[in-house]
Amino acid sequence: MALKEKIKKLATVTAGPCVSISLNTHRTRPASDKDKILLKNLLSQAEKQIVAEYGKRTVTPLLEKIATVENRVNENNNLDSLHVFLSNDTEEIIRTSWTVPEDRLNIRSTFNLRPLIKAYNRSKEYLILVLSQGGVQLYKALEDGIEEEVKSDGFPFEGSPYYIPNRAERSNAKRVDDLIREFFNQVDKAVVKVNQETELECVVVSTEDNFSKLMQVADKSDIYIGYTSIDYNNSKPHDVVKPGWEIMKQYMHEHRSEAIVEMKEAISKHKVLTDLQEIYRAAIDGNGEMLIVYDKFSQPVRMIDERNFELAKEANQPDVIDDIVSDIAWEVVSKGGKVFFTMQDEIKELDKIALKTRY
């Protein structure tokens, strides 16, 4: 399940108490050893608060999850932050490559998803397809880290099932090519199914010839944004994600540039908002077609009512939302709009945040 879908699923949980833990983590040892200790302390704190406020009887499943969830967190897989969500009926562990302002425990009737929303809006998830005639693997990646291997919808493929027993036929190059294309067509259909479920685009790791054959039989070639050459001696997940991320970064840069041009063209049509309050109202009303934000821009606010807020100077004050920009971005993307965070110089002509409206 992609991060966007996980957020949507967690947002539907309203049967509290809901425990939300967000903490910064480290990718390498010995620093990552401290992450395990910090998580253990936050879980211990959560247990004490839950028992003090709710007792034990009605929250037994939750207490069991609190007691055991650390055993399911492998610190060797850590990225830059870890998010743990627990309730009587829910357990979700999510790693992201975006740090959080502070290590935090929240216990309330719903999950605290704001740190995760911020990570989603500023990170990039995608698929990496390692394609060869001898076997095919599909991975979900988050920037320069592998999240998980896809083991559904036919993945992994162990190799082409179209073995030709007849030696004469095996020497027929056209016959062999046709069978390879048939195999790659099956692979493509499986990738398309994952794309439909996750909305994630795909980078292919393969030979140029195999990528060309895949494109010839692909039902939705636009979900494949490019390929990088495969090194069969170094085709493990941590080997393929680095060049895959380089392909994705170039693709994202091009799309951000196109988005900025589109935003500038919309100004003359009076369809661009740059006032933060107006942008927020348009976003919650579903009127946000495309949002562009300067990457480091955030703004704490204090809500006055459902549609209005006042700016706050400090993010850690009582009743202050630490970053209304993340909330705006989620409103836009969850209602079918596009969101781009960028540090490209062209954004300066638009201001720190700009919204292209639908109408």
- DSSP helical segment count: 10
**Outline:** globular
Number of β-strand runs: 15
- CATH class category label of the largest domain: Alpha Beta
Work out the count of structural domains: 3
| Biggest sheet record | 5 strands, mixed
Q: Over the alpha carbons, how many angstroms does the gyration radius reach? A: 23 Å
What fraction, in percent, of the residue positions are helical?
A: 25-40%
Percentage of β-strand residues: 15-25%
Q: Give me the secondary-structure category.
A: alpha+beta
Q: In which order are the strands of the major sheet placed?
A: 7-6-5-8-9
Task: Specify the CATH homologous superfamily of the largest domain.
Answer: eRF1 domain 2
Low-confidence segments, given as residue ranges, are none
Span between N and C termini? 32 Å
| Order of helical and strand elements | HEHHEEEHEEEHHEHEHEHEEEHEE
CATH architecture of the largest domain, please?
2-Layer Sandwich
CATH fold-type name of the largest domain = Nucleotidyltransferase, domain 5
* Mean of pLDDT: 90
